[in-house]
Automatic annotation (TrEMBL):
InterPro entries: Peptidase_M76_ATP23. Its EC number is 3.4.24.-. Pfam families: Peptidase_M76. One of its GO terms (biological process) is mitochondrial proton-transporting ATP synthase complex assembly. Keywords: Hydrolase, Metal-binding, Metalloprotease, Protease. GO terms for molecular function: metal ion binding; metalloendopeptidase activity. The gene is Atp23. This is Mitochondrial inner membrane protease ATP23. It is an enzyme of class 3 (hydrolase). Belongs to the peptidase M76 family. The keyword Hydrolase applies.
Amino acid sequence: MEGGEAAPPAAEEKGEEEDDFGYRLFPDRNKKPQSFLVRSLFTFHNRCQLMLRMTLDTNPYAQLLLEAMKQSGCTVFNDRHFSCENCDGCVSGGFDSATSQIVLCQNNIRQQSHMNRVVTHELIHAFDHCRAHVDWFKNVKHLACSEIRAANLSGDCTLMNEIARFKFGLKGHHQTCVRDRAIRSILAVRKVSKETAEKAVDEVFDACFNDLEPFGRIPHSKTDAKRAYKDFQNRDRYNANL
């Protein structure tokens, strides 16, 4: 969970138990959508839309994930699969598996670099949802695995981001960051004990940390992401010629 990304679950799980699944963090999920004219009057919404477009058009992390999802039969459409909304103060985004929609917290995302990380983080959840039978609600290990992958591959734990958080470390610091942020994400959207979250993360950590699809490597920088995107495109061209 970078800056508070979370993954709210399917709508059918809402109701009396909705707080258990994190929907309290995304209050606009329960409201009727506003008209385009009304939404266009809000600066937050306009800024969110502009930053989202910039991310989708220029960010190699997002571009790779979009291409990978398309190859997996889950084409992402801007107007359909992204929603800029107001959220609780502690979250920046979430993936709603009920609608296959990524929620972007327009009141909490103020910089392009932050938008890039949030979109990438949530696209990894969407990619996992596309390629695997993820039980987001009843199996905390499934949630833990996707959160580990999102923290590991989205740039959440790059050296510069960790320095900005005043967190420093040497050997194994990246793994520590991934583990801590995965636990934090689970606790944000599930009413489970810290011990339960830690156990789930620890039990799946090695397998999920080493699952680098679709990047093929841990992209520690935008340069790494560009190389991964190029490799992915070349892999697709190679497979097409088999």
